[in-house]
Predict the structure.
Amino acid sequence: MFSLRRSFTLNQSRNLFKSSVKMSTNEMKVRSTTASGSQVYESKRAVDEYLLFHYGNPSDLLSYKSGPQSALKFPERCAQICADYTTNNKRALDVGCAVGGSSFELAAHFDEVIGMDFSNHFIDAANTMKKDGKMSFEMLKQGNVFKTCETVLSDKIDRHRCSFHQGDACDLRADLGQFDVILASNLLCRLPQPMGFLERVPSLLSNGGILVLVSPYSWLEEYTPMDKWIGGNSNQDNNDCFETLSRTITSVSKQMELIHREDVPFLIREHERKYQFGVSDCTIWRKN
Ligand SMILES: C[S@@+](CC[C@H](N)C(=O)[O-])C[C@H]1O[C@@H](n2cnc3c(N)ncnc32)[C@H](O)[C@@H]1O
């Protein structure tokens, strides 16, 4: 299941996690989860940040009234958008699901949800949330001072509708079947081969099924070689990300049609006075 096409091996990424656990008060290798390359998603720092981002109380995530309140509850808002634009509520795929927050939110609307992510440690955390309905994690306060917290999933969510698997969005398994919704939130610009993913999606959608792409188009060479960026490359003409994405998706499959577009803000807390605030471009593509 694990692809060695990445520049790090499973052992290296496990070591990164182990060493970051040992160094839990001083995780030197991960200064920020913004621009560190994909191996960052195996670190304890990233697991903790994403547990807070996906499951934390809004007041823990953002304790400033002056902050961007509309950026809270990102997983819930992504799942609601999927529910609003689907015509069928049987199967959903959450690609690049991280620790699974949107997958559980999708389970409020869909009979079966598959969450998939490249990071073993994110999938382990999602599976712990599925099994126990809760998990403890650390919130960075300042410097190397952490506060231990616990997150608890609402008992209104039917956790058994969700399953989580490690996998590669650029090389999705052949036996996944077809989906009414494929959600890829903040994933595209973290893939080494975004085209590989976009080319595969139409065959995974049932007729009338939708692809919900949510992306800040934060292209960085740590994640994606520049010649594989979907727009945003000044070496190319017509390089607007949305327009390049539109040309790409409709040329991959004539059956794909843009049916909706909106801005989706999000907020990831790094420590009590530092955040990653982004506004992703949400585009919804229906397979006709
Ligand atoms: C910026 S995070 C977004 C996570 C989540 N979808 C969200 O919106 O909060 C990018 C995610 O993509 C995952 N990822 C990166 N490369 C991947 C790949 N090739 N296949 C599947 N997931 C991948 C990372 O492990 C990480 O969980």
